[in-house]
Design brief:
The chain is α/β, with parallel strands linked by helices. The protein contains 15 helices and five strands. It has a five-stranded mixed beta sheet with strand order 3-2-1-4-5. Helix 6 runs antiparallel to helix 8.
């Protein structure tokens, strides 16, 4: 049966109006639709480079739709090289697939093919960055994974020593291991020494990543220098911003960057009901977190006075529940707009644009 399906797939390949590809770690489900919208063929394709190339080369140039996921970057580039038009859909915005009550690989592949054939805008197409930029972005993501691992180990040490009636006083993350070794008694220290050694190793790894990121920003992505004019934005945040957005010209306005990164309120309006909701949290989670961290730095004590700081202080002064948190998110949104504007225009950053020039001077 499997052989007949493969043979059928090859024989009618040139008649496909659209193909849906549901990608999995080991095997992917492919369904082709003819001009009338009928299922012309279906096939299981191993999710490997040689097999995917063989399958794609056997098809005449057509439209192939797949969902964004771990494998979608390299598969989309492979299919494009084989002459196909590739649509990478946003799975979070395709409710007919993500919320289906009868999900299966074949159903998902058919849905993708029908959406690509009927109206590709319903797939909310995602443009993957180039392979080179993807590799550089993975450097930042790898550093983030190491930072989170170190944070978990530090929390573990603090909880462990508290169970024995001791505590490690507050200090910077880099100084934590040294502080623990000098303040804890020997009996308790023996329990956590291996963990402290692991923390030291992770700190050295983070330092090496920081040097690599600074080198990438200075040599390979010089546009990051414009972004680092803003106090609180370093090489890490600037490089992540350039790599996550990939192409600054894809936004018609700098104000579109905030919604793209999920820094604007979500909306669930129906009739007269329009509840106030939190931010949508769409887009890249790491980039959003880095912008919020920069916002907290800008709003911190004894920082340089600027429009962003004044905007956040104005929101925080209104009081209410989570006022400081809302102020940080608001500053992060404005910061994303500002960074995109600086990236596009290459202008010199003026911290106090909304005050007279004499006062700014």
């Amino acid at each position: 049966m499997k052989k007949s399906i493969k043979g059928k797939m090859k024989s009618v390949a040139r008649c496909f109006a659209a193909v849906g590809l549901d990608v999995s770690d080991r095997k992917s489900a492919a369904i082709g639709l003819d001009e009338a919208g009928n299922v012309g063929a279906r096939e299981t394709v191993p999710t490997t480079t040689p097999e995917m190339t063989r399958w794609a080369s056997a098809l005449a140039p057509t439209v192939i739709a797949l969902e964004a996921g771990p494998h979608s970057p390299w598969i989309s580039r492979l299919l494009t090289r084989c002459g196909h038009e590739v649509i990478v859909g946003n799975p979070a915005k395709i409710p007919s697939i993500s919320r289906s009550r009868s999900k299966s690989d074949w159903r998902d592949a058919e849905q993708l093919a029908r959406l690509a054939r009927f109206d590709r805008k319903m797939l909310h197409e995602i443009q993957h960055r180039t392979e080179d930029k993807q590799k550089d972005l993975q450097v930042i993501r790898s550093r983030d994974a190491v930072v989170r691992a170190r944070s978990k180990l530090i929390s573990h040490v603090r909880a462990t020593v508290k169970a024995h009636g001791h505590r490690v006083e507050r200090c910077s993350t880099d100084a934590f291991s040294k502080r623990a070794r000098t303040t804890l008694i020997q009996d308790v220290l023996e329990i956590v020494v291996p963990v402290l050694d692991a923390i030291d190793t992770l700190s050295a790894t983070i330092a090496s990543y920081d040097k690599r990121i600074e080198k990438l920003a200075a040599t390979k992505y010089p546009d990051t220098a414009c972004l680092q004019q803003v106090n609180g934005v370093g090489a890490l945040t600037a490089l992540a911003f350039v790599l996550v957005l990939a192409d600054a010209t894809k936004f018609r306005s700098s104000r579109m960057v905030g919604p793209y990164l999920g820094l604007v309120p979500a909306r669930d309006q129906s009739g007269e009901i329009d509840p106030q909701k939190g931010i949508s949290k769409e887009g890249d989670r790491l980039m959003r977190r880095l912008l919020v961290q920069s916002a907290h730095y800008i709003l911190g004590p004894n920082r340089v006075d600027c429009d962003l700081r004044r905007h956040g202080q104005s929101i925080a002064s209104r009081g209410g529940k989570n006022a400081k948190k809302r102020a940080a998110v608001a500053v992060a949104r404005k910061l994303s707009v500002l960074l995109h504007h600086l990236w596009i225009t290459k202008q010199t950053y003026v911290p106090l644009m909304n005050v007279p020039n004499t006062a700014a001077a």
